[in-house]
Amino acid sequence: MEIRDIKQQLTINEVLQHYGLQPDKNHRLLCPFHPDKTPSLQIYPKTNTFCCFSSNCTAGTGDVIQFIQLKENCSKHEALVKATALAGDNAVIASPPPPASKLLLNKVKSRKVGKRITWIKLQYCQKFLVTIRAAFHPLKKQ
Ligand SMILES: [Zn+2]
User: Is the distance from CB of 32 to CB of 69 less than 8 angstroms?
Assistant: First the structure.
């Protein structure tokens, strides 16, 4: 999964939820990256980004990957792995359990193969008939 895909599939709210963080109706919450008394972490669901307005905070602005990186205190690579897992969980929930279209495709495929076999058999029978006819034909030249 590419970073772009992860960012498309994983919303900032899902990341917050994963960490048990709940923004208020103004999309603000107590910043988990510095001792915060008034909600100074602003969430932007439209752009999937966050921004801490406190001057005492080093979080600044960032996206879902950076949020995970800050929260886990890990490398960007580890944050990406974590984000992929989170995005993957969402994908599993979002997709329907049995891939109906694939089953249908397999059915069509096997039907096509069946037709092809019948056709080959027919060709073989015809060839066989011609050979037999030729062998037993009274006017066949020796
Ligand atoms: Zn902060």
Answer: no
